[in-house]
Design goal:
Elements (H helix, E strand, L loop, with lengths): L10 H19 L4 H8 L3 H14 L17 H12 L14 H12 L5 H10 L16 H15 L20
Helix pairs in contact: 1-3, 2-3, 4-5
Length: about 180
């Protein structure tokens, strides 16, 4: 019933639901009661009330389908522009290093495409077009293994806070330190 990507209804179901709403609109014009329409069309009373309100505002056009709920906000042409911009690299857009992060891509979209997208939408957009997060294939040449081991042995135990208290405790939740 739903798109594999988790979008809205398929086209046939949208048409079917629009037909139900339009049938309700005809019955509104005939003066039928909300509860009767809901029972006959096998929908909730609240839905019929919502449709009746929309029908009063815009007659039958208000009951027509407005298309898929999850239509992409970035067109293919806009994404082609975005890919060109991403291909130039982060430094070309004023970032200090050569790493793309979602915040940076979001900034480029805002500046170049004049669109404001959430972080989750940026991630879904990139994923939909075949982009993925990247992990380094090997460790940096500058990495000092001796310094890392020294830090693990000397600094980390001092920084790490023990979850268990040292000393006597109590099993009472109301009086934790009672003797």
């Amino acid at each position: 019933m739903r798109y594999p990507e988790g979008g809205g209804l398929i086209a046939e179901r949208r048409v079917f639901r629009e037909g139900i709403r339009c049938e309700a609109g005809v019955r509104f014009a005939a003066g039928e009661k909300t509860a009767v329409i809901a029972k006959d069309l096998r929908v909730s009373v609240r839905s019929v009330e919502r449709w009746r309100h929309a029908w009063r505002e815009g007659v039958m056009e208000a009951l027509r389908s407005s298309g898929p709920a999850n239509s992409p906000t970035v067109t293919d042409a806009q994404f082609a522009v975005l890919e060109d911009e991403l291909g130039k690299g982060p430094a070309a857009h004023g970032f200090e290093d050569e790493r793309w992060a979602l915040v940076r891509v979001q900034t480029v979209i805002r500046c170049r495409l004049r669109l404001t997208l959430s972080m989750a939408t940026v991630w879904r957009l990139l994923k939909r077009h075949g982009w993925s997060w990247q992990a380094p294939a090997r460790r940096a040449l500058e990495r000092d293994e001796h310094a890392v081991e020294l830090w693990k042995k000397e600094v980390w135990p001092q920084v790490k806070v023990s979850r268990w208290r040292v000393g006597a405790g109590s099993s009472s939740r109301t009086r934790p330190d009672s003797p």
